[in-house]
Amino acid sequence: MTTFLATATAGAALLALLAGCAGHLSRPAGLPDALHAHGVLPAGAVRAAAAAVTAAEGLLGLAGATALIAGARDALALVLAAAALLFTGYAAYTRHVLASGRGGPCGCARSELPLSGWVTVRAAALAALAATGAVLTGLAGAPAPPGSTAQTATAALAAAAFALLLWTLPAALHDPEAHPASSPATSPTSAPAPLPASGGRPWTS
């Protein structure tokens, strides 16, 4: 059971890393634009930070997948620990952006999803998942999937389900009504009615 849980949690964390890297590569301007809109990093460091994040996700995802397939327990645990730190950094960064009153797009997917508390929750959950995978990998003895085809398929499906659930969480819980195009104060329908002239009744035709 420990081996199954280690494989499922490790696989989910690695799939999230690879999905993030693929999203950034397929939309190269998305993350730099989001970081610029957040206004936390200096303008000159935005592109370098975006490139570093994309590279870290891709390298960790590939290294972890290689270690998982090869059964390299120590290497996989190290990759998962690094992934947990990376996801924790995401959670801390998005929490800081939201707490400081800044906004902008998430920058974590192809869609123009706005930054929200659910993005922070997802990052924290992925950090916990990666950390759990690192611990369970050490306890399981060997990180390779269980021997039978059925067990391997079940672990792979569980990993994909965990990753998909967490990856789509912010989009699934996003409320477009919470981000209207115009505020009520500027809406034409909210303008106050003109007051009648002082000391007289309102004129009617």
Structure description:
There is one protein chain. The protein has 205 residues and is mainly alpha-helical. It has one domain. 65% of the residues lie in helices and 0% in strands. It contains seven helices and no strands. Residues 177-205 are annotated as: Disordered. The chain crosses the membrane at residues 44-68, 75-93, 123-142, 154-173. It comes from Streptomyces hazeniae. Residues 180-198 have a biased composition (Low complexity).
- Biggest sheet architecture: none
* Total domain units: 1
Portion in helices:
55-70%
Mean pLDDT: 79
Instruction: Name the helix and strand elements from N-terminus to C-terminus, one letter apiece.
Output: HHHHHHH
Radius of gyration: 23 Å
End-to-end gap: 83 Å
Pfam families: MauE (PF07291)
Region (Disordered): 177-205
Protein name: Methylamine utilization protein MauE
Membrane topology: Multi-pass membrane protein
Helices and strands in order, then pairings?
Blueprint: H1 2-26, H2 30-38, H3 46-70, H4 73-99, H5 117-140, H6 149-167, H7 169-172
Helix pairs in contact: 1-3, 1-5, 1-6, 2-3, 3-4, 4-5
